[in-house]
From TrEMBL:
Protein name in UniProt: SDR family NAD(P)-dependent oxidoreductase
GO molecular function: aldehyde dehydrogenase (NAD+) activity
Xref: PANTHER family: NAD(P)-BINDING DOMAIN-CONTAINING PROTEIN-RELATED, PROTEIN YEEZ
Pfam families linked: Epimerase
Domain of life: Bacteria
Classification lineage: Bacteria, Pseudomonadati, Pseudomonadota, Betaproteobacteria, Burkholderiales
Gene Ontology CC, one term: cytoplasm
Chain ranges of the NAD-dependent epimerase/dehydratase domain: 97-170
Length: 296
């Protein structure tokens, strides 16, 4: 009788919830250590996820009954799914907590928008939350729901507050081509960035190195205003720089959502992330990544 255990089944289970771009980048970092399940609401993505090394699970966070078979599936979870697009509460994350096993290790990727406008100040993870729009309030709600689950179920939760995620496929090229205006320098706001590859790496490390209940800024070292970022992208790809307008002029030119991003200014400190997770960013500054993209 063969009593050997198949190593494939001996590995612990990891569930990636919301396995989009960042989740696909995460898979190569975790698939040798875990038996990875990837949740998707799109059946057509099953082949892509399987080819990337995951076991696809088709279910919908907006339809709780489709999640029942996932209950207690995996003791490790990376939650990448955004909230539903409306309201002040994140019902998707409430549905996620219903399937988490007691004692699970959960990494949740949130957003730096939970701080609201900080007037350009350098902020760390102890900053008081002050969301200014429903999109950010949903994220604050998700964090609170997960913290309550962790207390109740003795879970080990890490929250990664990520700023603007970029990669070669996630640049504002269309916006530049459409000549969408940016703020004049005197009205401009500080923005923060993280490369999608680095965010995936941070999430992988947080599964093991994050302290229980800890918040980390998943942000790079760039200190750049939004218009400067658009200029850097335009210069790297040979596009005209965006026209600059005063804030009162811009109100009539851009969508309310875009205007909301242009109304919040903050700089994220990332010392805790580096110190406690031991991360070495591949792309410490946006300029480095753009230069590498030019060479391809």
């Amino acid at each position: 009788m063969n009593n050997k255990i198949n190593p494939r089944f001996a590995r612990p289970r990891l569930l990636i919830i919301g396995c989009g771009d960042v989740g696909i980048r995460l898979l190569p970092l975790v698939r040798t250590r875990f038996r990875v399940f990837a949740l998707t609401s799109q059946p057509g993505r099953a082949g892509e996820l399987r080819a990337a090394g995951a076991i696809p699970v088709v279910a919908d966070l907006d339809r709780p009954h489709t999640l029942r078979r996932l209950r207690a599936l995996a003791p490790y979870v990376v939650h990448l799914a955004p909230p539903q697009p409306e309201g002040d509460f994140d019902f998707r994350t409430r549905n996620v907590t219903a399937i988490l096993p007691d004692g699970a290790r959960v990494v949740y990727v949130s957003t730096s928008g939970v701080y609201g406008d900080c007037g350009g100040a350098l902020v760390d993870e102890t900053r008081k939350l002050a969301p200014r729009n429903a999109r950010a309030r949903r994220r604050v709600d998700a964090e609170r729901v997960l913290r309550a689950w962790a207390r109740r179920a003795h879970g080990r939760l890490a929250i990664l507050r990520a700023p603007g995620i970029y990669a070669a496929e996630r640049l504002p090229l269309k916006r530049l081509e459409q000549r969408t205006p940016a703020l004049a320098p005197e009205d401009d706001v500080y923005t923060n960035h993280i490369h999608a590859d680095d965010l995936a790496h941070i999430a992988a490390l947080a599964l093991f190195r994050a302290l229980p209940g800890r918040v980390y800024h998943a942000s790079d070292d760039t200190r750049m205003k939004m218009g400067e970022y658009f200029d850097a992208v335009a210069d790297a790809f040979g596009l005209p720089r965006a026209p600059r307008l005063a804030r009162e002029q811009l109100v009539a030119e851009v969508s309310p959502m875009l205007l909301s991003f242009m109304s919040e200014s903050r700089q994220l400190a990332n010392a805790r992330m580096k110190r406690e997770l031991g991360i070495r960013l591949r792309w410490g500054r946006v300029e480095q990544a753009l230069a590498a993209m030019q060479m391809k």
